[in-house]
Automatic annotation (TrEMBL):
It comes from the Eukaryota. Belongs to the FAD-binding monooxygenase family. Its cofactor is FAD. It comes from Cudoniella acicularis. It holds the Pfam family FMO-like. Keywords: FAD, Flavoprotein, NADP, Oxidoreductase. InterPro entries: FAD-binding_Monooxygenases, FAD/NAD-bd_sf, Flavin_mOase-like. GO terms for molecular function: flavin adenine dinucleotide binding; N,N-dimethylaniline monooxygenase activity; NADP binding. This is Uncharacterized protein. The lineage of its organism: Eukaryota, Fungi, Dikarya, Ascomycota, Pezizomycotina.
Amino acid sequence: MSVPSSLADTASTLTSAQAYHDESVDGTDALQVEKRYGEERAKRLRDDGVEQFVDISLSDKFRHFEEDPWVDPAAVKDTRTMFPHNRCQMLILGGGFGGLLYAVRMIQAGIRPEDIRIVDPAGGFGGTWYYNRYPGLTCDIESYCYLPLLEETGYVPKHRYSSGEEIRNYANLVAEKWNFAGSAVFCTKAEKLVWDEATKEWQVKLIQKRKGVLPQTLNIHARFMATVNGVLHWPKLPGLPGIPDFQGEIFHSARWDYSITGGSQDDPSLTKLKDKRVAIIGTGASAVQIVPHLARWAKHLYVVQRTPSAVDRRDQRETDPEWFQKEVATSTGWQRERLRNFHQHFTTEKQPAINLVDDQWTHAIGLAAIAGNSAGPKSMEELPAYIKLLNNIDLPRQNQIRARVDQVVTDPAIAKKLKAWYPSWCKRPCFHDEYLSSFNQGNVTLIDTDGKGLDRLTADSIVVGDESYPVDVIIFATGFRSPYGGTPAEKANLTITGRNGLSMTQQWERNGPATLHGVLDHNFPNLFLSGPWQASASPNYLFNLDALGKHAAYILAEAKRKADGKAFAVASTAAATEDWAMQVLMRAAPMGAIIGCTPSYINLEGGIDRVPPEAQMIMARSGFWGHGIEDFLTHIEAWRAEGNMQGIDVQV
């Protein structure tokens, strides 16, 4: 596979390559749209990239923004009582759905629930659904696809799109059903993992922090580990001057403070805001759901926008149980088939004859750019033509979304500012039925910063350019650390040291991951990973995690059988990891469509465009399986069917 001399060169040529034709597409001149896309992107590019944000978890100055408002200290077990003899067989890092799914699949593969421990800094199960409890919180993926294990649990989601509260309760249901609810070690974080070659196990340093109790450090040994630490869980703030100077109420949307706003997640009556001037910073997926509730209750609401979201219809509705049984849960394996059909819509090839989900995701075919596409380019030289094709497919949809703004928002000047000028795949699409109409209310002011963001805060105001807006409450809906940078160590804010004293951070930075199928790295035995590196992606991220959880559980079960009761180390072989990296590289070209995108967490705020030439091959070898998740599953399922654990080394 050939790679261009630099991704920056590729990005700079995309304007001409994407000038796909002079004809009118759906009433809009494609060349003019492309020109506008480039202009809007240029406004938002910054030399500091992801460094423009403050990572709350890494900042002593701002760490109070991530304090857990939901934890019940009395319900959290003492870490020391959870590890008899300071040992456990399987230690899972992460109590979100990824950790739950890995636990379920390991139990199904033969590990006893009592031999599992799940460590999480939170006070309960759910991951991002534990922390995020803001008003209006709803999953944007259809619940019949998103909630895993529906066939096994028999659970019927209450709505087409589940609320955050329902999802969090469902996480607890899963833990109870598979009998590992008592295996959780909450308010506890792993700080350091070190591989012990002599004993073939991991030495783990844990720190538990409970309110009103001195931090406790515990050093344990774990035979097997899984890092399932989520993708959107470390909140970030814009690097603004004056945040500590603000004298009003201030918090991040991922730590919603109902003591300030009034109400609760199940009753979002934000009565304490009736006499308050409120500013919400950000207009991404969280803000799109929050704004209608703030607009309903605040005396005045300022919505501070840097980049508008592309907001399509959501079409929420309650689930009719009779309809669900007759039309959805029709036969054994229904959820897998529904998800397969969902994924089959992200391709530039012919769409399936039947659309089982039929939501706005499945009509956004351009998202093949980030979901992977087996019909995509086979080399980087073919990438410009592929982007041209994607734009041809995508432009009618984006035109319709921009037209929807005009249909809903009554003030043409405001409507103009709310229109998204970038392809569907450059930022996570949004879906809501009330967000746009909120800007028709007299108590709502859109502060569009034309791509620049806020300038600073003062003791009582937000400042944009020469304009100062006095406010009483500031809510940062500014998102999370990008899930696509760093290693599993950085994702969990810990250090991982493997064979021969190798640091995962240094090894991956120098050479990239050395995994087979994205779940086992040659240099880090008995440590099961959860992607996305050298694995695949779906808009429904939980499906990715479950697929890898099944694969990891299969490998562990087969390794235990081979070891025949002896202590063992299981890892991928060097030859197999090199072959897999080349397989990923050969399929990398379709993922190159994000080059030239508007800055967002998807492209590391534009940083991917600036990757130096010497790092580009590593990036291509380390990235997603570019032919899509169904193609990825075909490969790993065929590997399992062979039954010989090709490429896996089990040492006793």
